[in-house]
User: What shape does this take?
Amino acid sequence: MSTLNFKLRQAPATAVDLSALIPSKLAGLSTGDIEGLPLGALKVGDLFSVSGTLSDAVVISGGSPLLDYVGAGLDGGSITVEGPVGAYAGRGMRSGRLEIRGDAGAYLASNARGGIVHVTGSAGSFAGGARPGDKFGMLGGTVLVEGDIGERAGERMRRGMIIARGKFGAAAGSRMVGGTLWTETGFGPRPGPLLRRGTLIGPKVDDMLPTFADCGRIDPVILRILSRSVAQTLGALAPKALPALVQKFAGDQATIGKGEILLTG
Assistant: This one.
C-alpha cells in the first residue's frame, strides 16, 4: 500500500485547519499541487514536506496541539499522526481509521457518523460532543482512548461508542440521547446530567447524581452482544469483555430518565 507522507517542518505559531488533508480530497493531486494547497494564511508546503504517493493512507510525522481538524470529514482510508493533535480531530468522519499517537484536543470525533478513532494518549473535553450550533454530538462510529478523557464527554451524543482505558472527567454523558460511554477505570463526579437515553459503563463513579435510581443487580444479555461487537470492531485493541452481572442506576430522573449507568466493579 502506498503512503502519502507529511513531515512537519516546525510547529505552527497559530491554530491550523488540516481538514483538507484526507485521502479523498488529495486523490489525483501531484506533490506540487498538494504543497500549494492553502491552510489558512499558509500553504501545505510552508508547514510540511510532502513525499510518497497516495493510495488511501496518509501519515503525518510530527504533531502539535495547534493542528486542528485532523481527519475531519474522513470518508475512507486511513490517517496516522505521529504526535499530538488539536481540537476537532475526526469531526464529521464517516468511515476509515484515524490513528493519533499522542494526545487529542477538545471535541474529538464530534458529529462523527462512522469509522474508528484510536488515540494512544488522552483526549480533551467534549469528546464525541456537540459543539455550539450542532443539534447532536457523535452520530456513529467507535472511539478508543488509551488515556483519560476530559469533562462532558458525549455531550448530546446520539449514537456510537466512546471507550476510555483511563477515566472520564466530570459530567460524562451530559444531555446524551443515545450511544455508549465505556471506561475501564471509572467516571469522575456526577456523570449523566440530563441523560435522556444511552448507556454509561464502568467499574465506579466518584459521585452519583441523586436523580439516578438504584435498580439493583441485573444480568443484561445485551452486554455480551456488545462485548462481542466491540471485539469484532477493534480486534486486539478491544477492552476486556464485560461481566455478566452489573449494578444498574436508571436516570436521569430530572428528564425522561431512560438512560442507565451500569457499574461493573
About this structure: The mean pLDDT is 96. The chain has four helices and 20 strands. Residues 166 and 185 are 5 Å apart (CA to CA). The first strand starts at residue 3 and ends at 8.
